[in-house]
Amino acid sequence: MKRVILNIGDAHAVEGAATFTCFGLGSCIGLFLQDRTLDLSGGAHIMLPEDTTSSHACAGKYYNVRGAIDHLLKQFARKGSSLKSIRAKITGGANVIQSMYNVGSLNAESTLHHLTRRGVYIAATDVGGFESRTVNFNTHTGGLNITNPGRPGERTI
What residues contact 94, with CB distance under 8 A and at least 6 apart? Predict the structure, then answer.
């Protein structure tokens, strides 16, 4: 099974079984897409809700929601995937700094908006709160395993 570590700004799609990992998601979003009919999956570690200047990559990185989603959906489309067969799981978007700007909430809202606008089915979400998360998305089982540093154990969505 392939292992894909997603650092901030990374957005990758792979064929076959894989595990996608995002470490320490605070206000960032971990987005995971899957088309089981084609055995195709993708993930992104997104830092910003919107970029007013461009949605294009900066040195191969996709820091904003629209850029990361566009990149992943283009990769899926190249492999023959239809928007109707893609399922999304979203996590992160915490208000870890507890500032008045709450970038985490803006990230979550922007991600949900861009996916639903395109007609992508949202299978599960675990967003918000005040704690960071480390997540592993197993494409074989479809499970998104989430651990928080302040809580014992792991939960799966």
Answer: 25, 26, 27, 104, 127, 128, 129, 130, 131, 132, 133
Whether residue 64 contacts residue 49, with contact meaning beta carbons closer than 8 Å, is answered with yes
Number of domains in the chain: 1
How many Cβ atoms sit within 10 Å of the Cβ of residue 24? 14
Which range is most confident: 98-102, 138-142, 148-152? 138-142
CATH number at residue 54: 3.30.1330.200
Q: Which domain holds residue 37?
A: 2-156
Q: Give the strand pairing for 18-25 and 2-5.
A: parallel
Q: Provide the pLDDT for residue 133.
A: 95
